[in-house]
Design brief:
- It is built from eleven helices and twelve strands.
- It is of the alpha+beta class.
- A hairpin with a 2-residue loop joins strand 2 and strand 3.
Length: 340
């Protein structure tokens, strides 16, 4: 029995979402509606691929295709969506013995490459896996350049007392000090979404970095998922919002997604308390993990996030070119600042 691909359509939405929810690698970013919102705001074409071994459905693999001139690009996830990882989802993978795990991963990637480089004739492909899928070798064996990245995950099953005692003593001290200063943590609303976006833009401007305006995209995500899988938590001082974060709740994981911009109020930072109250909320909701989403490639962010004593969870970015000249062109563009 060989491997094959089927492109799902709108009639398959429930089947797609049920499959994603059944897998430890499925994230809210893999859900049908999130994928369609990303497609809408990235000027790309979504290919929601279902992979079969014979008649058995063994994986879902969302791909975003974009054509511009002679360039044909496939991404998972697409750029400028504040989504770090996406890639393949397999529901029964953890129950397989090692030979079957390897056979399936190799077969899936071979079939995906046939679709991307033969059917779509892509010049460049970038695929990023969800945390927890440890084996990157099928990418390497298929000719991809693979880089490891790391997110931070806090195991909430340990209990709040143990989590509190394991945090860096400076965080515990700051949290008590912040509470004494009158910082209040509460749920936010749509006006706070605008505040968080403006504060993130301010921080990018201060660092001389560029950020694409994704406010319309975030607005669609907000209206689709608020009250179901999304909450805004804000820190207020004297009735004014001074920091905030968008949380995503899915399959036992609370994701610290967009927000927590650096903020100073009378010489103190409200963000330690903001994160601690979020951790407490995740625990009360029965979540298994609190994911302090990260790529692991910015040591400046590490200083704040690691203080909560989370564990590292690995994920991978794999890229491949159809011809060495495209690799050369992209390398030159990165060095010169002219984007290809």
């Amino acid at each position: 029995m060989g491997f094959s691909i089927r492109i799902a359509d709108g009639d398959d939405q429930k089947e797609w979402d049920d499959y994603i929810a059944s897998s430890p690698f499925g994230t809210i970013f893999h859900t049908w509606q999130w994928l369609k919102i990303m497609e809408k705001h990235t000027d790309s074409t979504l290919y929601p691929l279902q992979i079969f071994k014979g008649s058995t459905h063994i994986a879902n693999y969302p791909i975003f295709f974009k054509k511009k001139g002679f360039l044909r690009v496939a991404l998972s996830p697409p750029y400028n969506t504040d989504v770090l990882y996406l890639g393949p989802v397999m529901s029964e993978y953890e129950s397989y013995k090692q030979p079957k795990k390897e056979e399936y991963l190799i077969g899936i990637q071979s079939e995906i490459d046939r679709f991307l480089f033969t059917d779509l004739r892509c010049n460049y492909v970038n695929l990023r896996t969800a945390p927890g899928l440890l084996d990157s070798r099928p990418f390497l064996w298929a000719g991809y350049d693979v880089k490891p990245f790391y997110t931070y995950r806090l195991d909430l099953n340990a209990g709040l007392e143990e989590i509190w005692s394991n945090m860096h003593k400076s965080v515990r001290k700051n949290i008590k000090n912040i509470q004494d200063k009158g910082i209040v943590i509460q749920k936010g609303d749509e006006s706070d979404l605008s505040f968080i976006q403006s504060e993130i833009q301010r921080r990018f401007d201060e660092q001389g970095r560029q950020r694409i305006d994704i406010s319309l995209y975030l607005g669609d995500i907000f209206h689709e998922y608020l009250g179901h899988n999304l909450d805004i938590i804000v820190a207020k001082y004297l009735g004014e919002t001074v920091s905030g974060v968008l949380h995503l709740n899915y399959n036992g994981i609370m994701y610290q997604w967009v927000g927590v911009p650096k903020a100073e109020v009378e010489g103190i930072s409200p963000n330690e308390l903001l994160v601690w109250e979020s951790i407490k909320n995740a625990h009360e909701m029965g979540m298994r993990y609190y994911d302090i989403m990260d790529g692991g490639d910015n040591p400046r962010l590490r200083r704040f996030k690691s203080k909560f004593n989370p564990e590292l969870s690995i994920w991978y970015s794999a890229e491949k070119y159809s011809h060495p000249m495209y690799r050369m062109a992209r390398t030159i563009s990165r060095k010169t600042g002219y984007h290809v």
